[in-house]
């Protein structure tokens, strides 16, 4: 028998070069597609992932792999957020003439960018790859998704479903490629070799994208601030804050990070948030949470990210009432000396009191 010779292991540069070549070849096959053709493709891509049965399967798969968030949140993001995004863009024009200014003799014509390199975080690996992919294909581009290693298999599952759907519709399956063995080196190499970077993740990741030498669009930390004044429907506001703060255990960057209540509604609103499952921390509990959330150098403890309130309570040595869904931590400043003002990626919310809307 002839001795089998193992193929030499590819360097990150060689691996990504091969993926980019495949991706570019696929992109060139659709660069002259009509608007109707690309819109059909993105509908099929969303259906492949968000269809009944599959959405449930991916939601559970994601939670099992990443141990972040919860099933209900993952399911809603797959089944609802992806379809809502599709509806947001499906009627947008992305082929041919998209704008005209006759008085200035200007005509704007849409042109594909080429190969999109997309970075996907571990906190939203169920929706991010699909949403980025339909935006890419809508513009007649191809996409290569670099996942966080913690969500490697989830990313592969979703990218494979999109590729299969594209193939069934007669389009090149390599329009969507997922990096199967992600590493810092392969991600950095992807950012160097692709035509445009779309980065979603922590500050370090976004900074790396902007420093890659390739044009980039980045989305970093999420610090949504919600202000409630006397003109608000307080019951509705409390309900929406609870939904935002607890959906997928605050894994989404759109999760409410801080809430500012004006004096006129402060006590009443705190009570309504309490009825929604919020727990107002005292100074001692705030200190315990701070020690649990950050180390002495200000690095966030990843063990608390997108975890239930009771698990965080056990880690911090804090007693919370049964039914607590999120924490409200009183705060009066912002910046490095007030860490609760920053991103927490958890069901912990900074609570501010303001004199009025201008002060807020």
Would you mind describing this structure in some detail?
Helix 2 (35-50) packs across helix 6 and helix 3 (54-66) crosses helix 4. A five-stranded parallel sheet has the order 5-4-3-6-7, sandwiched between helices. A five-stranded parallel sheet has the order 8-9-12-11-10, covered by helices on one side. The chain has a two-stranded antiparallel ribbon with strand order 1-2. It is built from twelve helices and twelve strands. It has helices spanning 12-30, 35-50, 54-66, 71-89, 128-138, 152-168, 184-193, 203-210, 234-246, 266-275, 283-293, 309-316, and strands spanning 96-101, 106-110, 115-120, 142-147, 176-178, 196-200, 216-219, 224-228, 256-262, 278-280, 326-330, 348-354. Helix content is 43%, strand content 17%. The chain has 360 residues and is of the alpha/beta class. The model has no long low-confidence stretch (mean pLDDT 95). Helix 6 (152-168) links the parallel strand 4 and strand 5 (176-178).
